[in-house]
């Protein structure tokens, strides 16, 4: 005999409390945008890049590559993904492209690194 599914036909919370919780849940567009931003920082390379940008304010690709110890091509690829997620912005300065965190990128990077450091009991800048 198959095990019954874990479902219920009644709201265990009570209707008023359940409606309050439902009203507090962001709309689908907001959730999708937040998920895209979270995916942007869901890679160690991209998180290292955003940490470098947080410390350096505004950096070109070659400087970011040197700081994180990766090739310029790889860093450029990840910066493009971060830009698509609205976590970094760029501006052209002559032949160079300068990158900086957006306010959203700064907040998310700080939240992720601070949250991990708090769990691990280490400083976010000192591993």
From TrEMBL:
Bilayer-spanning residue ranges: none
Keyword annotations: DNA-binding, Transcription, Transcription regulation
Protein name: HTH arsR-type domain-containing protein
SUPFAM superfamilies from the UniProt entry: Winged helix' DNA-binding domain
Lineage summary: Bacteria, Bacillati, Actinomycetota, Actinomycetes, Mycobacteriales
PANTHER family, alphabetized: ARSENICAL RESISTANCE OPERON REPRESSOR ARSR-RELATED, HTH-TYPE TRANSCRIPTIONAL REPRESSOR CZRA
Gene3D superfamilies named among the record's database cross-references: Winged helix-like DNA-binding domain superfamily/Winged helix DNA-binding domain
InterPro entries in the record: ArsR-like_HTH (IPR011991), ArsR_HTH (IPR018334), HTH_ArsR_DNA-bd_dom (IPR001845), Metal_resp_trans_reg (IPR051011), WH-like_DNA-bd_sf (IPR036388), WH_DNA-bd_sf (IPR036390)
Domain of life per record: Bacteria
Record domain HTH arsR-type: where: 26-120
